Amino acid sequence: MNNPETLLALSPEGETLARYPLDGFTDVEAVAYLGDDRLLLVEERSQKLVVVPVPTAEAPLRAEAAVFSLALGLAGNAGLEGADYDAAGDRLFLVKEHSPRQLLEVAGLRRSLTTGATAITLTDRSAWLDDHDMARDLSSVHHDAASGHLLLLSDESRLMMELDGEGRLVSYRSLWGGFAGLADRVPQAEGLTLDDQGRLYVVSEPNLFYRFVRED
């Protein structure tokens, strides 16, 4: 949450379990779990990746931990929007919203944290999006450890796309009313994730939480 910057812990039912104020952060747009009790917070405008411990008490999280800065140019309010981490491959996936929309892969993050040396490499995977113009922007990304696929979320197009490990389109899902059990469209989808039981979660502004479960 922004204004004030706050990290929320939610139950699978969407209940707020805890609130953690973010001290010294600005315009946080994404959060990803890195393993080893570490979280990554992404600031949109500054394009900073900040690694902090998973909080254990409702106390402020301070921006005094490991920080990586990506030199992607000045993007204003169209900067980094989503992030997720592939623990097996030590790859962080990032999406830039638009102007242009981008899918980025950062390799070596865990190695850098472990050795203290800057050993990350940045690869632009935006070519994977060239054939998928159905998504006008990108607001979130999730790496599915079970399949190795990526889920990409588009706010403006109100859909999710699934790409395989080579960037090929596997499936897509509309977030308009009348699809996937939705009575109304998802107004402004900003984040998505899957849990280990295959349940899909989407958060949308203003303050909406959706859970999608596969039918048996």
**Rg over C-alpha atoms, rounded to the nearest angstrom:** 17 Å
Question: What is the average per-residue confidence, as pLDDT, rounded to a whole number?
Answer: 90
Shape: globular
Helix percentage range: under 10%
What is the element string, with H for helices and E for strands? EEEEEEEEEEHEEEEEEEE
> What's the total count of β strands?
18
Q: How many domains?
A: 1
Main sheet attributes: strand count, strand direction, barrel closure: 4 strands, antiparallel
Which structural class do the helices and strands define? mainly beta
The low-confidence runs, each spanning 5 or more residues with pLDDT under 50, are none
Distance between the termini: 34 Å
Number of helices: 1
Q: Could you name the CATH homologous superfamily?
A: TolB, C-terminal domain
Describe this structure in words.
By secondary structure, this protein is mostly beta strands. It has a single domain (6-212), classed as TolB, C-terminal domain (Neuraminidase, 6 Propeller), CATH 2.120.10. The protein has 1 helix and 18 strands. Strands 3-4-5-7 form a 4-stranded antiparallel beta sheet, with no helix packed on it. It is globular, with a radius of gyration of 17 Å. The mean pLDDT is 90.
Describe what is shown at a glance:
By secondary structure, this protein is mainly β. It has one helix at 109-115; strands at 6-10, 16-23, 28-35, 38-43, 48-53, 61-62, 66-69, 80-86, 91-96, 102-107, 121-124, 140-143, 150-154, 159-163, 169-174, 189-194, 200-204, 208-212. The strands form five sheets. The chain has a four-stranded antiparallel beta sheet, with no helix packed on it. The protein has a four-stranded antiparallel beta sheet with strand order 8-9-10-11, with no helix packed on it. Strands 12-13-14-15 form a four-stranded antiparallel beta sheet, with no helix packed on it.
